[in-house]
């Protein structure tokens, strides 16, 4: 058959075959490129530690007791330019500094504080203690940042040399506690927020009931914040080797000093003795080259980041206690909001955290359990599930010790009640012993803005009583308030039993009021003041282990997918200069991000909470 007699599609057939072949070739090439990329990420050769090197400790984002789940979110956020909340694990920082102290290859510890956006004072104190231990070996500690904010300067104060960019900023804000209040907006939307609570200081629900903070809440907040600020000033002054008044005067007279130096904050800080050098980045690099030598391939000083350093030592199993000691103290981290059920890392699940405690309880090598708490609370039900699991361990003869981090308030205090000892730092935020329930209804909103109304019938007064689109009935309100009252009574009774006192005496210091760890010790809410290491030694002593004991962290092990995402994120961070002096600086003034973060945090309180009884022991404010 001649070509002119072939049909149209028959003539296109060879062309289509060619296109299809080309498509298959391209897809195969793309597939194998992606496969090679993924395999490259999974195959991560052990980093090299130079014979004379600087250990670069550069925390990025917030310093936390436990990394939150969602590595993909963080990685994707960095790729598209959104800050989704990067975190640095406290344990990694402390372990790296401690190991470097005894490593002859590490000559200098560099605290690169450009990426640190925030950390609770308690966590900063843990890192400070590690830095002090490092300095006792006779090695030098250098701090560098383009800009210093309160948290980064705290660590810098313990360095032998503090470098700041000559165009940099040093801003030591005092501590504050502010929240958004939605009463006027909710009234405009005609949302009925039905609140049930016990305790005049239980301020978790105030944002939905008021347009401002109550005087009772301000009283409790300010007392704690003043204690926190005084501790900060004393610590920084001690680290820097100056008087407290020197730091305090610099902060209080900051506008005058900035004007005096014609806006040159670096020179003002230098004159006040808060920093040692106001220089450019290359001058810091030259100083470090002088101390450890120059890497000719990179034209900078020999260095290793703390993450690579830990990986190079290949001591992950030892650090986490996976090589089980026959006499071990189990450490379980309880960080984040307390929620019912199983929760990912970064939140405390009633079921998932209890399962870790149960695993430790049945481990024959575990002789004592230490619960590390960093939480403002949450579900009362989940808190009790966790407390009960610790109580069972205690009844079986395993000592239980609680170590409070920056915060162990409300439900975070509840889960500490089945213990032999409770340790806190002077700056720990704790207490807030109170209960609340909240049930918003939207029937007026729907009627006004959507023209929608709800009507129907039920077999009794409770039928349909908990619909969000109907007004709550007086009978149901009475029931909920009675349940809340009982929840509060159970709370203070449990506290009284644990602290060997009476519910009446606990009520006097409860009612939702927060306390510093120092005040909590005086009030009998905690037993001792000290850090994680102190609590670990005490747990070993209670178990009669002497000095020969191991430490095993019970945690959810990351899977291959999690490791892949974490590895990808670490490589992205490294490509953006995570171990170089300078790079992405901290941003103390970012109003848009801060506003969105605050709104999101307060809205999450309602969206996350899932207590089956609707009862919460929670403290909502953050310390800024």
By DSSP, the count of extended strands is 25
Envelope shape:
globular
Per CATH, the architecture of the domain at 53-176 and 251-314 and 576-608 is: Alpha-Beta Complex
Please tell me how large the radius of gyration is. 28 Å
Helix content percent band? 40-55%
Spans with pLDDT under 50 lasting ≥5 residues? Answer: 71-84, 570-580, 583-589
CATH class of the domain at 53-176 and 251-314 and 576-608: Alpha Beta
Structural class: alpha/beta
Strand content: 15-25%
Query: Mind summarizing the main beta sheet?
Result: 8 strands, mixed
Description:
With 624 residues, this protein is an alpha/beta fold. Among the domains are: 3-42; 53-176 and 251-314 and 576-608, Alpha-Beta Complex (2-enoyl-CoA Hydratase, Chain A, domain 1), CATH 3.90.226.10. Helices cover 46% and strands 18% of the residues. It has 24 helices and 25 strands. The strands form 7 sheets. Strands 13, 16, 18, 19, 20, 22, 23 and 24 form an 8-stranded mixed β-sheet that branches. A 6-stranded parallel β-sheet has the order 9-7-6-4-1-12, with helices on both faces. α3 (90-101) packs across α13 (306-313), α8 (215-240) packs across α9 and α15 (350-361) packs parallel to α16. The longest helix is centred in the N-terminal third of the chain and has 35 residues, at 8-42. The radius of gyration is 28 Å and the shape is globular. The termini are far apart. Residues 71-84, 570-580 and 583-589 have low confidence and may be disordered.
